[in-house]
Predict the 3D structure of the following.
Amino acid sequence: MRLPGRYDGVARPIVTYGSNPVLHRPCAPVTEFDRDLRHLLLDMFASMSAADGVGLAANQIGVDARIFVIDCPDADGEDVVGYAINPVLTVLEPVGDEPAEEVTEEGCLSVPGPYAELPRAFRARVDGVDVHGDPVSIEATGMAARCLQHEVDHLEGIVYVDRLPEELRERLLAEAEGPSGDLPA
């Protein structure tokens, strides 16, 4: 599921909250598995890396497609690196003494700056396909599981601040806008 030369793409600007409707609606399923799709994936990895992120959904660079990339540590500190096209999220039961859920700070490249505590399942899996249309699964714990849930939310048109109480969401969005009142493009 790793993509050779995955950081060889071109970094694209990150879409910020409220600046593009594609960030706030469910993304379209991918139906064409061609060279353009591979280039998009390379650009997504490059964009995530350039923005110092750990995950990125296609709509965060303005593309209406059900794709995300991830490069994020799991609960054991092991890097979970990969991507999924047309992913379906499954929240998994804890194993052994793992918690079912953990509350930790979460942020987003599309809401630059602020973080907020948000509960997420400790263990999650996505099932989708790769650039050739072959089945792939990514199962993760801890921060990487949080990332899987966060990115699938993006593909449904949900930004993490949308899951917060309205007052907190408005405060975080104002903080992200900064003194000029505009989120950076």
In short: The first helix runs from residue 35 to 50.
